[in-house]
User: Fold this.
Amino acid sequence: MDMPSTESTFRVVWIAPSIILSFGVTRLCSDAILVFRSRHQAPLDWMPLAWAACIFIWQLQYLWAIIELPNFVRTWTLGEFAALIGLSLTLFVAAALVLPDKEIEPGSSLEESFVRDGHWALLALSLYGFLAVYVDVWMFSESLFSPGSMMLAVIALMPLLFLASKGRGKRGAIAVANLPFTLFVAWYQSPAAY
Assistant:
């Protein structure tokens, strides 16, 4: 009996995480459309939109970078599968909670929704960052003190710093700094081509 190839095994392993990640991308895009539709009824707030953009960037980066995983993992364990599921689930939770899942009612605001549920989205995003560091060290054999791991650790800490900060000015500065840093780290962590 022939053993399945690494590539075909990976395709089977990747089905569940990719479905979860796809639901997260769909959820985030749908919620963004609902927020856009609500713009005449309730004021928009750029901070939740900036965090939603960061989550979307990580969703795209994860989808792109995972293609190279069969080059690093030859056999799959339950732990490695669980790590992929964990990465997908944390991004799904972040995507599901960062923006409201229905049109904002008159008299309400995106800021109120973000204060109510957004902190959970940011905690999930932070957990994603820490889990990504763990996966890079464990599955990709990257040093914990490599530039990539260190940047991912900062990415994991930024939402926690945002949540620990008081005042809209400080939180705004963190959100403004986080978006270009997220773009840079996602680019740095991604292969240019396959």
